[in-house]
Specification:
three-stranded antiparallel sheet; 2 helices; about 130 residues; 3 strands; alpha+beta
């Protein structure tokens, strides 16, 4: 039996690594995050009761936008933190167990007079 390649339809198409065009690109992801934060948070005031819904909405919007970028077989995890701007410092950290060849992350920070927003997006390749 002859085995056909990916173009022929009936071959083994399983790959252990994403192609160069399909890799998680931190610079592209950061640009997407930055554009969304700038659009959605430019004139928003910090109102504690509205922040849970806003963080959920932002994370869904960012995740959906990243899926449109064509990172095939990547699991996207988006973390959004919004806090009131009071002139205090904030430290955030994340630890992950992943494959450094295929997995990556991007982050961005947005601030205005009323609030700050930190977004981290993680892309983990499905084997």
């Amino acid at each position: 039996m002859g085995e056909l390649g990916p173009d022929g339809g009936a071959g083994n198409t399983y790959s252990l690594r994403p192609g160069l065009q399909r890799r998680f690109k931190s610079s592209t992801v950061k640009e997407c995050i930055h554009a969304i934060l700038k659009e959605k948070l430019a004139n928003v005031q910090y109102i504690p009761e509205e922040m849970p819904q806003l963080t959920k909405s932002l994370s869904e919007t960012i995740k959906d936008r990243l899926k449109e970028e064509g990172f095939d077989r990547y699991k996207m995890v988006v973390q959004v933190v919004i806090g009131e701007q009071r002139g205090e410092g904030v430290n955030m950290a994340a630890r992950c167990f992943w494959d450094a060849d295929t997995d990556s992350y991007a982050h961005d920070v947005f601030t205005n007079d009323s609030l700050f927003c930190v977004v981290a997006a993680f892309g983990c390749f499905y084997y």
